[in-house]
Design goal:
Blueprint lengths: L1 E7 L5 H13 L8 E7 L2 E7 L13 E2 L5 E9 L2 H10 L9 H20 L2 E9 L4 E6 L8 E4 L4 E4 L2 H5 L10 H10 L13 E2 L4 E6 L5 E4 L3 H10 L6 H19 L6 E4 L4 H13 L5 E7 L8 H11 L2 E7 L1 H7 L3 H4 L9 H13 L4 E3 L4 H5 L3 H12 L5 H12 L3 H10 L9 H11 L4 H8 L6 H4 L18 H27 L4 E3 L5 H7 L8 E2 L2 E2 L1 H8 L18 H6 L3 H8 L11 H13 L5 H19 L18
Helix pairs in contact: 2-3, 5-26, 6-21, 7-8, 7-21, 7-22, 8-9, 8-22, 12-20, 14-18, 15-17, 16-17, 24-25, 25-26
Amino acid sequence: MCGIAGLVDPRLPPDQLAAWAGLMADALAHRGPDGRGVWCEAGAALGHRRLAIVELSPAGAQPMVSGDGRWVVSYNGELYDASDERSALSAAGHGFRGTSDTEILVELIARHGVAGALERVEGIFAFAVYDRHERRLWLARDRMGVKPLFYAASPERVLFGSTLAALAACPGFAPEINARAVSSLLRHGYVPAPGAIWTGIRKLEPGGLLSWRLGETPRLATYWRLDDAVAAGRSAPFAGSDAEGVERLETLLAAAVRRQMTSDVPLGAFLSGGIDSSLVVALMRKAGGETPRTFAVGFTDDPRFDESGHAAAIARHLGTDHTTLPVREADALALVERLPEIYDEPLADPSGLPTYLLCAATRQAGITVALSGDGGDELFGGYDRYALAERFAERIEPVPRALRSLAAGALARLPAGAARQIARALPEPWGGPDGADRLRKAAAQLGGDAFSLYGRLLTLNPAAQALARDVPGLPSPMDAPGESPLLDRMRRLDSLAYLPDDVLAKVDRASMAVGLEARVPLLDRAVVEFAWTLPRRLLVRDGRRKWILREVLARHVSRSLFERRKQGFAPPLAAWLRGPLRSYAGDLLSDPDCGGGFLDRARVRRMLDEHLSGGHNHAVGLWPVLMFEAWRRVQTKAEQPPSPYGKGVRDGSAW
C-alpha cells in the first residue's frame, strides 16, 4: 500500500506544482515509508509515498510512466490477478521493466484505456492517472471501498489525496467544516460518502471513476456497482445443494486467500478467534508454504472484552506462529489523544483503539502485510442487529400498532429506579448495569417496524440533528427506502455505508498509520458476487448466522472452538468516561468554545452530566461528540500558508 496525492492547475508554474505535490505526498509519509516520488509537467503534478510490497527495487517506484510515454500513474493498492494480466500483456508483446503490479496497471491502461483496465483487474486500490495527450486526470477507487480517495475539484483545478491530510498540506487550501457532515457524524459515527467533514471536498465512492480536464465539470461514473451484484444474485440464485454451496464458497475463498498471500515482504494475519478471521487463517494454512504468523490483542483488565484465549486456541489447532499482545487499559487510554491524528477525518468507532494497537504490534513484529477477516458479517448476515430486527419482525410486528404504542408509552414513563430494577431481572442483551437505557431504547421502537429498529441500532445519537444545532445530516444509503426482504436490505445497506465508511476506513487508517498493509480476502469480487446468490437457508439456519461460513470453517477447525456467542471489539466506554477519561472528556466538552458553533453546548453538557451521574448511559452518543471536538481542536491549531488564489479559497466553495 502507499499514499497518493497531486494537483492539476495550469495557472501554476511547474516548479511550484512539483513543490506542492511533494508537500502533499510528505503528509502521507506514514503510509509510504519506503520511497517518495513526484512527477510534474506543465499544469499537472502527481506525488507518491511508497510502501514496498512487491518488486522492492527502484523498478517499482512511482509515479510511473507507461512504456509509450502517454500515461502517468500514482497508485495505492494491490492487484491480485497481476500474474494473469502480466501473461496477457507479455503475449501481446510488452516487455516488462520489473515485477510490480503498478507497471501492469499502467500498461493495461495504455492498452485498454482506464475503463477497460478497470473491467479486467481484481484488487484493492485507489489511483490517479494522467493522460498527457488529452491533459485529462482520472481517479478510480476499488469496488468495495477498501482504499480511500478524497478530492476537491472545480472547472479550473483539482486536488486529490489518500487522506484529508494530503489536501490540507497544499498551501492555502483550508476549507471550512461542513455542518451537515458534523450532524451525520453524531448520528452514524462516520461521515457517509461522498461527503466529507470539510466543505468542497468529496470522497470518491466505491467502484467510482472520475474524469477531469481543464474547463470541464468533473465527470463521475461507476464501473462496478454493488446493487448490480445484488440484482444479479437475486435474479439467478444459487440452486445447488447445501454441500455444493459450501464447496463452492471454500473454493472461492481459498483462491482469494492464496492470491492475497503474494508478497515480497513478511506476511501475517489478524486472528480474533471469531469465524471470519479464523477461516482466513485456516485457508492460509491450507495454501501451504511457511507457517502463518497470527496476531491478537488481549484486554487483560477486563475479561468481558477479551477474545485472546479463543484466538490462541484456534492458533494452536491450526499450528500458527501466534502472538498475543496484552493490552492494558492504560495503553488504550494513552492512545485516545492521538486519534485525531490517526483518523484525520473524525471517526467515532471505539474499536479504532484496539485496531490501532493490533496493527502497531503486528508491524513491530516485522510484518508488513496482514490478512483480515473484515466483510464477513455484512456479506453473510452475521451481525446481532440482523437477528434482533428479524425477531422483532416475527414476534412484535404482528401485534397491533396501537397496543405496541401503549406499551412503549408505559415503558418510557417508568421511573429510573423501576427501569433499573426491571432491567436487572432481564437476560442479556437487555439486562445488566445499563439495561435501563436499553429498555428506553426498546420502548422508542415498539411502535415502529423491524427496519426502523435496525436503523436505530445503527444510530449513535437519535437526537443528532438537535445536537448539531438543527442542521440535517448528509444523504446516506441508510435513509433510502427498499422493498427487498429484510435481511437483504440490512446486508446491502451495511455493505454500501457502514462497511466502507466505518469498518474499512478504520482498518485502513490504523494499519497505514504504522506502515502496514491490510488485505481483505472475504471482499474478493468473486466472493462478494457469490454471496449475493445465496438463499436464506445458507445464511441463517437453526438460529445460527453465517451458516455457510461456519460450515466451511468446520472443515478445518473443531466446532467447539468457534461455536459461541459473538463478541465485539470495542472497549468499555461507559466506565472509561466515568473513570479514567472523565477529566479528558470534561475538559473538552465543558469548554466555553466546545463545538466551535457546530454543537448545542447545553445539550452536550446535559448528556455528559447525566452520564457521569450514572443516571443514563450516553457513552455511544458522547463518543462522536468527543471525537469531533478533539479533531476540531487539532484542526484549529493547524497553520496554513497564505493562498496564492486569494481569500475566496478558504471557504472551500472555490474548490
